[in-house]
Design goal:
By secondary structure, this protein is of the alpha+beta class. The protein contains 27 helices and 22 strands. Strand 13 and strand 14 form a beta hairpin. The chain is elongated and about 115 Å long. It holds the Pfam family Hydrolase.
Length: 696
């Protein structure tokens, strides 16, 4: 996120001298050489006249300048030549003009001090500020292995653990379903699932989570995780281009190119402003003697117009303005260290403008790890002419319902589907195959199922099955009386209404599934923080029914709830609330059914471990840790950053005014103008680095 004012690369392709790429870069980038030059100039200007005998002052000053000037003058002159050759007039050109004009005017000390201070500010910005502010993408790339030890498999695609043989394969060529051997000290190259073995891993460099984690068979391990001890065999779940580490690298690099509005404006304004400064400086030099009777060259009695013009050029150069957006880069880095990835500095501006935040419920405010509490036949399970459910029907109905639901939801990512599949594991259930399938987002799904091993005689033929919300299942019944009876049965369930409900309709037989989801333990604290210091309007947007939505809302401290929402309803609510509230809206979701709402929100947060590729693509902020504690931190960081940027701009403009006007009026010598100008740039850099600290 380096401003163009400090960018040299644009001119390299136009003027590819070997000297340009070696000696000037060496002189420009080394802090000790720049400091040595500054010390020599300061010694020549301040120490020599007072500590050295008069006869030796001038020779010693000249000696110091002969040594110091090349250390800063070579890179400055070549930068200016390259920029002018490329048709650019920017800060480098202004600094070089002012410095070398000072030399020709007999003020070599001031000119040299200007260049050394300018280089020092540049090094502090680039090496100490800019590099510290960025996620170390290069380090992540270097730490990620280029190859993986892919285990050879036998005919049934299972590794032979008695005689392991493997080959080295480039990580870009590792296929999903392959098995990889990861030893102690090695890094997991792509997202995998532990197939065999145990190990202690760390993901600190990915999510900021310091505590080591235990990885055992069945656990998911993200690409980039480091194996601290143990040896494990992992099964590849995602190719390199979809793995966690590659996504972090890509998003971080994209964030650097997505500049906030103020930085884009400063980049465009910089060159125009620099040209205006040059024109004004020339005007002061040539028109000053005409209108104000200043001498063209300085005299003992009065500073000349050329001297004043040089002072104005130094003072008015927008160095401090150019580095003002450094605060965005430091904020992005600070968030990344907490496991929060921002898609550019403009996200921080948008966050700071938001006054409302909406949360999805399942998987965001709650654990998302639903557990099946009961399966209750409620309609159509009569035996003979008896319209009531008989006890002898219940065990078989439960088995057939669970078998059908598990078959329909196999491989799903939806929390209800995952809960039912997990609940079916280890149970003696009939084998069910799904013949056809249709999904209705946010509502449910329908399928034609075939039971191979029948529990009831009804299960021996193809049957129409539908699974979804109460509204979805009842809408499939043509009879209004049947729909009413099903709703009444749900409301009068002996298990109560505080559970998450799903209905299964199997050839007009309806079964009510009760599931429970607990709020995340950290959520009440997060909501309290957003209410107390964030002063945000907080609401829940969920597709769940009213009683369960309010159960969770009351537990976590949310007072505004919108329930029974389909994805398109969430989208409309986000749009309407954003329009009516007069400010931006933040949407936080897990990314399964929240894609449209996340895209429409001013800023969309998504839990990256749970999110789909579409949700990650439309979201603005990715929470790498599987919790929402990063939300208040990110909002506080956005407010801190906007404050820092405003402070930086105020400092830069104030120092330009304080130095420029007195310089034109002849009150400031060039040396003080240099100190004010470059001191302001250093002050802005140091103020921006405060963004690396956590917001108070």
């Amino acid at each position: 996120m380096e401003p163009t004012a400090f960018t040299h690369s644009s001119s390299l392709t136009r003027f590819p001298f070997p000297l340009k790429a070696t000696l000037p870069n060496f002189l420009r980038e080394h802090l000790h050489l720049c400091c040595s030059s500054a010390v020599l100039f300061i010694a020549a200007a301040a120490a020599c006249p007072y500590l050295i005998p008069k006869t030796y002052i001038k020779p010693l000053q000249n000696s110091f300048m002969i040594v110091a000037f090349p250390l800063v003058g070579i890179s400055a002159s070549l930068d200016a030549i390259m920029d002018v050759a490329g048709g650019k007039v920017n800060i480098h050109v202004l600094m070089a003009l002012a410095a070398f004009a000072s030399v020709f005017m007999g003020n070599a000390l001031e000119g040299g001090l200007l260049l050394s201070m300018f280089n020092l500010a540049h090094i502090v910005f680039k090496s100490r500020g800019h590099r510290r502010s960025m996620v170390d993408v290069k380090e992540l790339k270097e730490s990620n292995p280029e190859t993986a030890l892919v285990i050879d498999v036998d005919n049934d695609n299972v590794p032979n653990f008695f005689d392991l043989s493997y080959k080295s394969v480039h990580v870009h060529n590792v296929e999903v379903g392959s098995y990889i051997l990861v030893g102690t000290g090695e890094i997991v190259p792509v997202d995998c699932q532990v197939y065999q073995g145990n190990a202690t891993i760390t993901v600190e460099h990915l999510t900021g989570e310091v505590k080591p984690l235990e990885a055992k068979a069945g656990d998911i391990v993200p690409g980039g995780a480091r194996n601290l001890d143990g040896r494990i065999i992992v099964k590849v779940m995602k190719a390199w281009n979809e793995s966690t580490l590659n996504r972090i690298l890509q998003l971080t690099e994209d964030a650097n190119s997505n500049k906030p509005k103020i930085q884009r404006w400063l980049d465009e304004f910089g060159e125009i402003y620099s040209k205006v400064v040059v024109v004004l400086s020339v005007s002061i030099a040539f028109l000053g003697p005409v209108f104000f009777k200043w001498p063209f060259l300085s005299t003992i009695a009065c500073r000349g117009s050329v001297y004043r013009a040089l002072g104005f050029m130094m003072a008015a150069s927008p160095c401090a303005l150019a580095v003002a957006p450094l605060a965005y880069a430091t904020a992005i880095s600070s968030c990344a260290r907490k496991g929060i990835l921002l898609k550019g500095g403009q996200v921080l501006d948008a966050l700071a403008s938001c006054h409302t935040i909406g949360f999805d419920k399942t998987g965001t405010l709650t654990t998302g790890g639903l557990t099946c509490k009961a399966i209750e036949p409620i309609y159509g399970h009569e035996e003979g002419n008896n319209a009531s459910v008989t006890p002898c029907c219940i065990p078989n109905c439960e088995k057939e319902a669970l078998a059908v639901v598990a078959a329909m939801e196999k491989g799903t990512t939806h929390p209800i589907g995952r809960a039912m599949v997990d609940h079916s594991i280890g149970k003696d259930l009939p084998s069910v195959s799904v013949e056809s399938f249709e999904y209705f987002p946010g509502r449910g799904l329908t399928a034609t199922v075939n039971c191979v091993e029948s529990v009831t005689e009804d299960m021996s033929k193809l049957q129409k099955a539908s699974l979804g919300s109460v509204e979805f299942i009842t809408s499939l019944f043509k009879s209004q009386d049947a729909s009413r009876k099903i709703k009444d049965a749900v409301n009068s369930s002996s298990y109560g209404n505080d559970f998450v409900h799903a209905l299964l309709s199997l050839d007009q037989k309806v079964t009510l599934i009760h599931l429970e989801d607990q709020p995340r333990p950290e959520v009440p604290k997060v909501i309290a923080e957003l209410k107390s210091w964030g002063r945000l309007r907080i609401m829940m947007l969920t597709g769940d029914h009213e009683s369960n939505a309010w159960r969770v809302a009351n537990a976590v401290g949310i007072d505004e709830v919108y329930c029974n929402l389909k994805p398109e309803d969430k989208l409309n609510h986000v749009k309407n609330i954003s329009r009516d509230s007069g400010g931006g809206l933040i949407m936080v979701g897990e990314g399964i059914n929240d894609g449209p709402a996340l895209a429409a929100a001013t800023v969309g947060f998504v839990l990256a471990q749970r999110a789909s590729g579409t949700a990650i693509a439309v979201a603005d902020v990715l929470l790498l840790r599987d919790n929402i504690t990063g939300v208040p931190f990110c909002i506080a960081k956005s407010r801190q950053t906007t404050t820092l940027v405003k402070q930086n701009v105020a400092i830069a403009l104030t120092l330009i005014l304080l130095a420029a006007l007195p310089s034109v009026l002849g009150y400031l010598p060039l040396c003080l103008t240099v100190l004010l100008h470059e001191g302001g740039t250093l002050l802005v850099c140091l103020n921006s680095i405060r963004g690396l600290n956590d917001p108070s």
